[in-house]
Amino acid sequence: MNESVKYVTLMEYLLNSFSVASVMFQLITIKSAVKFMFAFLFICMLVCQIFIFAWTANEIKEQSIALSDYIYKSPWYNSSEEVKKLLAIMMIRAQKPLVVTLGPFSPMTSNTALTTIKAAYSYATVMLNGYKEE
Q1: Domain limits at 88?
Q2: What is the pTM of this model?
Q3: CA 101, 105, 109, 113 torsion-angle sign
Q4: How far apart are CA 91 and CA 68, in angstroms?
């Protein structure tokens, strides 16, 4: 699964960073109160989207780690030998967590959401410096 979505998650991460940065830049430079409120609500929605995306990826990781415990706590001892062997294989596989990665870089976690916001702030600062120089 991760192989098919890792570049999609990387693009999502980059686009969210640039979107938040551009809306931050607009928040700083907007003079109209109505436009400011619209931009503020939009940035809140973008930040929520980032954190929901990161939370979902983190839940996939946490639930995959807990899978081995769930299998062990099931009544596996009442099963046939073939089922016991299959459950043992599943438990061994479940020891390695499933992670959603950002392209070839790092796994998507809750900390990645904070990194996205920090990157967006850096991009907005660069844009603001360029805006002030003109």
Answers
A1: 2-133
A2: 0.74
A3: negative
A4: 5
